[in-house]
Amino acid sequence: MRYPDLEIDLLRAFVAVAETGSFTAAAEVVGRSQSAVSQKVLRLEELLQQRVFTRTSRALWLTPEGERLLVAARRLLEMNDGMVRQLMEPPAVGRLRLGVTEDFIPGQLPRLLARFGRLYPGVEIELMTALSCDLLTAYDEGKLDAVVAKKDGTAQRGRVIWREPLVWLAAEDYVFDPAEPVKLVMLPKPCTYRELMVSALDGVRQPWVAACTASSLMGVQAAVAGGLGITMLGRTFVMPGTRILEVPEHWPVLPMTEIVFIGEDAQVEDLVRPLVSFLTESLAHEQTLARVA
Fold it and tell me: Is 22 helix (H, G, I), strand (E, B) or coil?
């Protein structure tokens, strides 16, 4: 029996719908109209002679066949994209000393690096993770080829590759008491988060005390989850045991935090270029999903 050939663009549309939960959101992800995405999914179902989604007027979800297809479709798309990259780009081979800040989408970073390793098996990454200030110092001293770091608000170098809103984080059972000084969980100086917290609370004359100073962002998360106090971090740092705190209306609106890539002019440019391309494409997809989630 001859089975039908599955078209990559049909699978890409299907995966986008499955990940976003709607045809409208998927259309933004793949850069097509909603009707075009719908037609691609219908065409895929015709080829497979099976329904991949169950639809109602208000929602849709994967059928059991759709769930099995999603796993295979993701593998096929990754293989397709990797093969096209290998054919259209010269192979990247060598060692790249990369510094990545702890601020950078902690839940997604391992998956992104693993996928980059599969797409570019010839690149050996020597990875250093630390606070942004320490990474920038190492970069300036020539110990790193490229850095993914938090923009410090003064330096203008680097390309912005990620933006997300800052939020106040607290333990799930935290109760805000306006009559008491706010207990803060902080990183040691110098720290942009620390400075923003202090200036935000001082600006509205909100009393505060430093309840805990942690040496790492993981330590800050643990202290907050344990109920030692609240802190200010990017939205992606919400973890089990913590929640975004609804603060009084007179507290100021928090700014966005930005992550920059520094090192595009490195001597190992042939290794940095594919990494920059991979990160910008992957993160653009991640942020589209975040907007429509």
Answer: coil
What is residue 92's DSSP assignment?
P
| Residue 137 maps to a domain | yes
Digit-coded pLDDT (tens) for 157-213: 788 888 888 999 999 999 988 889 999 999 988 888 899 999 999 999 999 999 999
What phi and psi, each to the nearest 5 degrees, are found at residue 119?
Answer: -75, -30
Q: Please write the tens of the pLDDT for every residue from 112-122.
A: 888 888 878 88
Position 269, amino acid: E
Global pTM exceeds 0.85: no
How many structural domains does the chain have? 3
Range of the domain at 26: 8-88
- Asked whether the beta carbons of 150 and 158 are under 8 A apart, the reply is no
Cβ–Cβ under 8 Å, residues 61 and 54: yes
Asked whether residue 2 is domain-assigned, the answer is: no
Strands 146-150 and 159-171: unpaired
Residue 63: other Cβ atoms inside 10 A: 15
Structure tokens at 201: 């609370």
The span from the CA of 37 to the CA of 43, in Å, is 10
β-bridge mates for residue 123, sequence order: 94
